[in-house]
Amino acid sequence: LFVTLPNSLSIPAPSAVPELRLSSLPLINENLLGLSAKSVQGFDAKSDLFTRPRAIAVVRVDGIDSLNSKDHTTYQLENVSFRLILIKFDRESVSVNRDGISGSEIAKVATTQEIKDVAIKTKLTALRQELENVHRLADAIASQGAKFEKSNAADVYRVTISGLAGKQLNSEDLDIAVKDIQNAVNKLAQALATAYGDQAIVEVVAISETRVGNFITLTWREQLNVYVFTSTDYPAIFAIFAGLVIALVLAVLYTAVGMMSMDPSKDSIIYRMTTTRMKKA
Question: Which keywords annotate this record (predicted)?
Fold first, then answer.
C-alpha cells in the first residue's frame, strides 16, 4: 500500500502487476529512491532522473491483511519472508517499534515530543504506545521541517506496528484499531510530505498472522543457522544411499566369510611357495 508518492514517480496500476513477493520490496524501494537500477519483473516504475525522492517511510503492520484503504494504491503480496529496507548511508535513519524510537538526531527530538490532542480510541495498551510513538515522530518531523530542506540524500524511516499481532478482536474493536492506525499513518505521511516538499514515499506493508509466523521462523533459523531439509528428491536420494550402504555391508560380509573359511594349504599361493621343498637332482 503506497500512501503517498512524489509526482515525479509513476508506478503501474495494481491490476497490471502480478502478485508481488514480500522479499522483493527492498529492491523496489531502492529502485524508487534511485539507489539501484535493478527493477522487479512486472513492476516497472518510471521516475524523473533529476528529481529523486528524498525520504521513504516503510510502515509494517502485523496482524492484519490490509488497512482496507480505497484511496491509495494497493498491491497483493505473496506470503513469504519480509525484510525492511536496509541501506547504510550518512543520513537520517529512524526506527519506531514497541521498544520506542531510536536512530539519528530526529529520533532524539521525537522522544521529547508531548502527545497533545491525539484521539487514540483502541483499548490495546501495546498498540496505543506504538501509535503514540508514530504521532511523536510525525510531530518531530513537522517541527524540524526547515532542517530537511537542506537534505540531499534520502532519509529512511522504519515503523513497526505489532500491537494487533496475536489479538482476537471482535469486528468493532478491530475497526477502531485499524482506524487509529490509519490516522497515525496519514499524519506521518502529511508531515513527511510537508517537510520534504512532496518528495517522500510512504509505504504500508500489512502482514497477517501466518506471514508473521513464517517471518519469525525464518528469522530464528537464520540466527541459529538451523534449516529443515525439504527437498522433493528425498526418496530418490534415500534409495541411492541405502543401496550403497547395503552393497558395502554385503561386500564386507562376503569378504569376512571368505577369509574365515579359507584353507591356507589349498587356497594360499604364498603358503605353498614358502613350504614347497626343492627336489634333489
Answer: Membrane, Transmembrane, Transmembrane helix
